[in-house]
Amino acid sequence: MDKNQEELLGQTVTKNGLANGTYLYGTSRKPDEIGQDYMVFTVHQGEIQGAVYMPRSEFSCFTGTFEDNQMKMSIIDPYDGTRYNYAINLQIPTTASTNGQWAEMGLQGYHRINTISQNDQKILDTCS
């Protein structure tokens, strides 16, 4: 990647983060594993709204944005409403994918899971 491409990619990441849509990420590649952390969220024009949870446990809603190559979140304690700031680094692709497009960005320490369950959607709806 040349310097111009790096600058363009950096600007794109800073402004947009992930594309508009609904996402599920987990510390495991498989959904609904006991003891693993998951995040389900929507992105709309750089604004993030979602929840962090462990299966068969409570969940915490959050809002956030993409800034400085990070997903910056304000997580709301489900018991007392206190907000906690948390950030996850974006994994920025440095190569194009096999179809010639840029590979999708990811979240450091998390794996994207393509199937969003009814329970994930229910949690997301509660936090919207």
UniProtKB/TrEMBL annotation:
UniProt-recorded name of the protein: Uncharacterized protein
